[in-house]
From TrEMBL:
This is histidine kinase. PROSITE patterns: HIS_KIN, PROKAR_LIPOPROTEIN. It comes from the Bacteria. Its EC number is 2.7.13.3. Residues 360-369 have a biased composition (Polar residues). It comes from Fructobacillus fructosus. It is an enzyme of class 2 (transferase). SUPFAM superfamilies: ATPase domain of HSP90 chaperone/DNA topoisomerase II/histidine kinase, Homodimeric domain of signal transducing histidine kinase. It catalyses: ATP + protein L-histidine = ADP + protein N-phospho-L-histidine. The keyword Membrane applies. Keywords: Kinase, Membrane, Phosphoprotein, Transferase, Transmembrane, Transmembrane helix, Two-component regulatory system. The chain crosses the membrane at residues 20-43, 63-84.
Length: 382
């Protein structure tokens, strides 16, 4: 790269865009001037031309020199105006090459729409590259930080077993149990980090990814009812079966599982979870409410940060990596939705997902119509 840059600097200045523009404009102005002179000669006749040449006399060469100099200077200044934004763009790109995290950006060009659009595209590309680099750095830093503790624990138990613990059945069992628990936690962490990475790079097709909300929420609700019978469950449905949002069904299910799972984890005393579906204007709202320990006001702005935990005592517990809500935020934003949270310490939390309503697909509409027809047929038979 450095060698190529040096080769570019060694090129003749006559091959630069500014030199070519200057030469082209100079030739153009000379042709225009010659055309004007020849036009005047043709209109006024040879007598006037002869009188003009006799009047300037020996000043002829001086006049020609100043005319050429003026034309060349004007062409150079115009070429400078055209090329100056390109030079600034080149300088920004060189700075970006030396420091990929630079804050320098291409400035708007008011008098050149094409260069202004090019600068906007370059700025957007630089922003995307820097976001990806920052995400990569955060990923490496977070994973290395989170894996350091479980790796140290597993290593400590293995060293203990290697020295003398393998001969003690109680120590052997305890070390194996602790090591397996930490390995499981590392597995959960890696899987969640992969899910977060997929959410950050999620490609959305809102024209094809349509999902009827009620069936998905109802299925997840009943699944958790079966898995956790010790909890009291409530489901308030204010939607019809044809209400759809632009999201893949498996992603909507994943969002619900994360929120409900969090509600279960933090409901230590009052084991009760409420789910609700509602229509608010052109939006579908999905609510998950628990009556657990709640979230302090100073923590509400940070609960969607990766690896942030409200309860610091859960740092080393399985499933408490603090990535679930980060995944929710990234995925909901990718689908054009919103995440809202209301909470008070000691009174539980309420999370609300909001998505714009889309027109039901033909297939969903036909299924709904068929269901209505079957209902009418059954009523007529009765």
């Amino acid at each position: 790269m450095v060698e190529e840059k040096n080769n570019n600097q060694k090129r003749s200045p006559l091959t630069s865009t500014q030199a070519i523009l200057t030469l082209g404009l100079t030739v153009g102005f000379l042709l225009i001037a010659c055309g004007i002179v020849l036009g005047l000669m043709a209109i006024q006749g040879p007598d006037l031309s002869k009188a003009v040449f006799e009047a300037i006399g020996h000043w002829w060469w001086s006049f020609l020199f100043f005319a050429l100099g003026g034309i060349l200077l004007l062409a150079f200044l115009l070429a400078q105006v055209f090329v100056w934004p390109v030079k600034k763009l080149e300088k920004v790109m060189e700075t970006f090459e030396e420091d990929p995290l630079t804050s320098n950006r291409v400035q708007p060009v008011a008098y050149n729409k094409e260069l202004d659009n090019l600068g906007s595209v370059i700025n957007e590309t630089m922003n995307q590259v820097q976001n990806l680099m920052q995400s990569q750095q955060d990923f490496v830093s977070d994973v290395s930080h989170e894996l350091r503790t479980p790796v140290a624990i597993v290593k400590g138990h293995l060293n203990l077993l290697e020295r003398w613990g393998k001969d003690d059945p109680e120590v052997l069992e305890d070390s194996l149990s602790s090591s397996l628990a930490e390995i499981k936690r590392m597995e959960v962490l890696v899987n969640e980090m992969l899910e977060l990475t997929r959410a950050e790079k999620l490609t959305v097709n809102t024209e094809q990814d349509h999902t009827a909300v009620w069936p998905v929420v109802s299925r997840v609700y009943h699944d958790f009812q079966v898995l956790h019978p010790e909890f009291s469950w409530t489901f308030d449905n204010g939607l019809d079966q044809t209400s759809e949002i632009a999201i893949r069904p498996d992603h909507l299910e994943q969002l619900l599982i994360i929120l409900i799972d969090n509600a279960l984890k933090y409901s230590t005393e009052r084991k009760e979870v409420h789910l609700a579906l509602a229509k608010a204007g052109s939006w579908v709202e999905i609510g998950v409410q628990d009556f657990g320990q709640g979230i302090a006001s100073e923590d509400l702005d940070r609960i969607f940060d990766r690896f942030y935990r409200v309860d610091k005592a859960r740092v080393h517990q399985p499933g408490g990596n603090g990535l679930g809500l980060s995944i929710v935020k990234k995925m909901v934003a990718a689908y054009g939705g919103q995440v809202q949270v209301e909470s008070a310490l000691g009174s539980g939390s309420s999370f609300r997902l909001r998505f714009p309503i889309v027109q039901p697909s033909t297939e969903s509409q036909s299924v709904s119509d068929q269901g209505k027809k079957d209902t009418k047929d059954s009523e007529s038979l009765l």
